[in-house]
Amino acid sequence: MHKTLVSRVIGFVSSLILTLLSFLIFTHLDFFHLGIGLDVVTVFVLAVLQFIFQSICFLNVCSETGPRWNLVVFVSTLSIVLIIIIFSIWVMNHLNYNMMGSM
Amino acid sequence: MSDDIKVFGFWIYLMTDLVIFAVLFATYAVLRDSTFGGPSGNDLFDMPFAFAETIILLTSSFTCSLATLSVYRAKKNSVIFWFAATFALGAAFLFLEFSEFSKFIRMGAGPQRSGFLSSFFSLVGIHGLHISIGLLWMVISMFSIWLRGLLAPTVSKIFRLALYWHFLDVVWIFIFTAVYGMSRL
Prior knowledge:
The complex is a heterodimer.
Chain A: H1 5-27, H2 29-32, H3 38-57, H4 69-99
Helix pairs in contact in A: 1-3
Chain B: H1 3-31, H2 41-44, H3 47-72, H4 76-106, H5 115-148, H6 152-180
């Protein structure tokens, strides 16, 4: 799979479409009528979709033969990344809320 | 050492780099509203400009993947051609990023202006630093291919370079969404 032109074209075209979509949401917010909160969720879903496409097509994440060490390290790093980002935001927002007024 | 082991080692490096970016993203997410009376992201960021940067970097990722495809097909000149295209797009991206930085600094919105701008310049600047290192690596690889052809050690390095370049593109997707895009929402 990772030695074909097709997978590269799929990765590229899907990224272009997803980037264009989130760009349109950012610039034409009134047109899409997404509520507060739903728009944030939508653009991050689009970014994660693009992340998945690129990981498979360009980073060759799921194309290992034999033991999938790269995939194991990838998944554990992603969990560390999510913990760092989500809990930093969570802790700091609550610190602001409880100690420094509104954020 | 087998090539798989080398790729695995390089992969571990990329994953630690990802943790660095995660910390920078977390810092940015926490400080994005701390403008200290200065300009906010909504005042500063130009969405079509950021979109153009994104498309350029995406295309460079694609041309880079075409270069590795040419390696599989053992076409030396086409490898150099696609890497040259990737280099040109990467340099264009870096030029846009620097012109944006200098525009902000001339407006008085430099990294020392507010917590928001410090975290913005750190996150996007460190991504730009990675891009510059990638460009340097690309020049060295192109010379090596041009002078000595597609020898096994060179090919092995090219695959790691391609992995590095795609990784930077993946990080940029989240910069586009979390930094530039989120300033509009």
